[in-house]
UniProtKB/TrEMBL annotation:
One GO-annotated biological process of the protein: enzyme-directed rRNA pseudouridine synthesis
Family named by the database record: Belongs to the pseudouridine synthase RluA family.
Lineage: Bacteria, Bacillati, Bacillota, Clostridia, Eubacteriales
Name under which the protein is recorded: Pseudouridine synthase
Catalytic residues in the record: 144
Gene Ontology molecular function terms on file: RNA binding; rRNA pseudouridine synthase activity
Keyword vocabulary terms for this entry: Isomerase, RNA-binding
Pfam families documented for this protein: PseudoU_synth_2, S4
Enzyme class: isomerase
Substrates-to-products reaction catalysed: a uridine in RNA = a pseudouridine in RNA
Domain RNA-binding S4: 21-82
InterPro entries: PsdUridine_synth_cat_dom_sf, PsdUridine_synth_RluA-like_CS, PsdUridine_synth_RluC/D, PsdUridine_synth_RsuA/RluA, RluA_PseudoU_synthase, S4_RNA-bd, S4_RNA-bd_sf
EC number: 5.4.99.-
Length: 339
């Protein structure tokens, strides 16, 4: 293919020698002008169709399948990633295969438009498998810019592939806590609603009929006044999933100006990736990491009075390497509240 940015949709058929290969690998081998990561991104964004349907990067192709690449607007190139000094202060765990960090607020995970010069990737680049035009080295999942908490990154392409597969198979447990407006009814449950791009505001995601499957489990930990503290577990990992699901129920994350009122002020959205648990992809040793929210949560909740404990435990899994954490303990030790 002469160009990766055709003015009209470009298509080709899968040859017999490509049977059994992943869709992203087939496209990359057909046109290696861009990286395989680039093509995975195009597939995820819906620019690639297999037999007329949008599918996942890992979909296995068959002989005669038609792959269609729609028009892709060529963006201005991002500046090259520059290797600098590793920021070790926020590294929670590190070995030869992976890194776990406690991401601060106001930091994107990887370079993007408007965030070309600082990201998690920039700060860890010497430890990541960086090559070519890949602006997401080691990245297997993301946290929004103002979401704080735990994030795992791979230190090699092989481990990246293994971790990505584990996430797809729901073998990586990602648990969050959030302060929301209002009280959930029922207090515990599952939000099962497909998510896609908002029809009018392209910066937002929304619940849409033909969106991608999305499920979030929630548990109310405590309530006070007009707010609640909830624990949330992802069964899928869509963009803005927790924020969209909670907002769709009428209970936006406090401090979220995109899915809550535009007048929301404070340090930022009170959403924190508190726990991360999985089997090590190489050694198969069970790993569990947890962190309290940043100190700005306590400042934002300094006027909290008389919380009602709804659930005794934030996390209670005696069969895992993760410790039990009580809700009362989180409120006092984690948020610095004087109850």
């Amino acid at each position: 293919m002469a160009s990766l940015h055709p003015k009209t949709p470009t298509s080709f058929q899968v040859s017999p020698d490509m049977v059994g290969m992943r869709l992203d690998r087939v496209i990359y081998e057909w046109n290696p002008e861009h990286s395989r990561t680039f093509w995975q991104r195009q597939i995820q964004q819906g620019h690639v169709r297999l037999n007329g349907r949008t599918v996942k990067s890992g979909t296995i192709v068959q002989a005669g399948d038609e792959i269609i690449i729609d028009f892709i607007e060529k963006p201005a190139p991002l500046p090259p990633l520059i290797e600098g000094t590793v920021d070790t202060e926020w590294i929670v765990y590190q070995d030869d295969y992976l890194i776990v960090v406690n991401k601060p607020r106001h930091l994107v995970v990887h370079p993007s438009r408007g965030h070309e010069n600082d990201s998690v990737v920039h700060r860890l680049l010497p430890l990541l498998p960086h090559q070519g035009d890949d602006f997401r080295p080691g990245v297997v999942h993301r946290l929004d810019r103002d979401t704080t908490g735990l994030l795992v990154l791979a230190r090699s392409e092989d481990v990246k592939a293994k971790l990505s597969q584990m996430i797809q198979q729901r073998q990586v447990h990602r648990d969050y806590i959030a302060v929301i407006q209002g009280h959930m009814t029922p207090s515990n449950g599952i939000i099962d609603a497909p998510i896609g791009r908002h029809l009018r505001n392209r910066l937002k995601m929304a619940i849409v009929k033909n969106g991608r499957e999305a499920r979030t489990r929630y548990y109310t930990l405590a309530t006070w006044g007009s707010q609640s503290l909830v624990q949330l577990s992802l069964e899928t990992g869509r963009t803005h999933q927790i924020r969209v699901h909670l907002s769709s129920m009428g209970h936006y994350v406090v401090g979220d100006p995109l899915y809550g009122p535009a007048s929301e002020t404070g340090p930022g959205q009170l959403l924190h990736a508190m726990r991360l648990a999985f089997l090590h992809p190489v050694t198969h040793v069970p790993l569990c990491f947890w962190t309290y929210p940043p100190s700005d949560w306590g400042k934002a909740l300094c006027d909290l009075k008389d919380p009602k404990i709804v659930s005794e435990f934030v996390f209670h899994m005696s069969s895992s390497p993760c410790p039990d954490i009580k809700t009362y303990q989180l409120l006092i030790d984690g948020l610095g509240l004087a109850l």
